[in-house]
Amino acid sequence: MKIDWKDAHRHWRALTLLIWIAMAAYLIANRWGAIHWFALGDTDDNLRMMQVRAWLDGQGWFDMRQYRLNPPEGFNIHWSRFVDIPIAAIILASKPFFGTAIAERIAVAVAPLLPLGVTVFAIALTMRRLIAPWSFALAALLLIGASSTMAMFSPTRIDHHNWQLAMLAVIMAGLVDPERRRGGLTVGAASALSLVIGFEMMPYLGLAGAAIALRWVWDRAEFERLQAYAVLLAGGSALGYALFASYDNRVPRCDVLSPAWMSTMVLAGGLLVVLARLPLATRCQRLAAAGAAAAILGGFLAGAWPQCLSKPEGVSAELQKNWLDNIREVRPVYRQDWRVMATMLGLPVTGLLGSLLTLWFVRRDPARLTAWASVTLLSACGFALLFFQSRAAPAAQLLAVPGGVSLIWLLFPRFRASKSLLVRVLGASIVVIVGSGFAVPWVVKMAPNKVETKQGTAVRKAGAACGTIPAMAPLDKFPRAVVMTMNDLGPRLITLTHHDAISGPYHRNGDAILDLHHAFDGTPDAARAVAKKHGATLLLICPGFAEGTVYKARSPKGFYAQLEAGKAPAWLAPLPLPKGSPFRLWRIN
Description:
Blueprint: H1 12-30, H2 32-36, H3 43-56, H4 84-98, H5 100-110, H6 113-130, H7 135-145, H8 147-152, H9 161-175, H10 180-197, H11 202-218, H12 223-244, H13 259-277, H14 283-304, H15 317-322, H16 338-361, H17 366-385, H18 393-416, H19 421-435, H20 439-446, H21 454-465, H22 469-472, E1 482-484, H23 490-496, E2 500-501, H24 510-521, H25 524-533, E3 538-541, H26 546-554, H27 559-564, E4 572-574, E5 584-588
Helix pairs in contact: 1-6, 1-7, 3-4, 3-23, 4-5, 6-7, 6-9, 7-18, 9-10, 9-11, 9-18, 10-11, 10-12, 11-12, 11-14, 11-17, 12-13, 13-14, 16-17, 16-18, 16-20, 17-18, 18-19, 24-25
């Protein structure tokens, strides 16, 4: 059978499906050990599983509190149920055939692959609209090399960040859609759904809306895109709030789609609908009207919800200093190890360069210029946010894919057309390697490994051992209790054992987090008072655990440092654990 490769791109949907299946198979095979051992490495993944379990056990749809942390009050969690739905559905579908334990493993393996499928399809659509019919295949290659992005779709990563990335990819596809109304509907719906899921993508959502408004300013014919976007943004935000806002999110919060942001989004949509319908003939008139609308929206936000003009987390200065500033992903990229920094920046740099170069090449094509300008704006934002917080890396790499593909697509033929064999081979190879961002990981791997310190070895071993099923299983032989342990161990403890914990790393619960910090930094008497306040009857530490190094460095003579040194006060009675256990456990008297 002869295959007509020239027209094979017409079957891009089927080919994209095969690409996604191949990616999914590779990721499952690569993470098989983690799936088998239920190794939910991130605290958010563990808490997500506990939220799903609680819902399946009868906790209310709008009750998102985690009562296994800081009982009986529970922890105020700012998430929505949207991400719980596919996880719960997979568990319910698998449980009758395989039992609960296997069903949960199937869920943590499959659930992250669903937003990956959405992302792969949206990127393919974006590439075909922006560059060329076959460019989607090259985009898949770049996406595979985007290590920070792909890590979010890896099996066992069941938190909400992968769905946010998927919505960001859909927004890109909508921004470059030549059919204006459909493109506006796509961006509006994806933006509203992203807000329902979480607020981490707010800078990109704001820029996407600004890009659509500016395109209307430049071209009156873009009113269809603007109007469709506005209707879906306002309506989707209102509907999303009604369907997914938890009881704790029905007060004016700044970190979720609460009344504060829902009302702001509805007003924004209403103002944009008015703008789209105004008979303004000149660009200056449209720009003035857009500026007036922005002023009205900003005035409303400042007047009605002034607290939302600062950091959305709203944490205290003490919590910011003692906890939030010590989280590695919150630090800017230039404060990371040079290997991590280079890997994070590789694709965003080449992608941004490719986007800027493409803008020059398409400068005389108004339709392509505005489409590329929208994508470049988002890519530049992702790159800039890396210098604010490193956790912007997954989005920055995702947004850099179109620019990286375009860089290769533009330069590769020019090198291949050279009369020099050396230029054709070497130049074309360099373009592909650099444009794809693969050059940086290769250089990083070739660099000599950093000599690991004694403390670094201890931290690595403790981090690998303390969250495992074999390590935590022996804790279940003791009657259920509230356990006083580190913040970062709390979610894993409640996931793998029947015990409850005092705290976890979730910013709305600053008092409980600081109680634990005060206990481990302070005197034994202060620690005992904290334990009594929270009803804790067991104390658990993991010597060498990363969080413990913060306490020891900050308070060398504090309670935690004394515990690791083997100096436990009289009110702690040691409890037996199996030989080789990474934990130390005491009963609090």
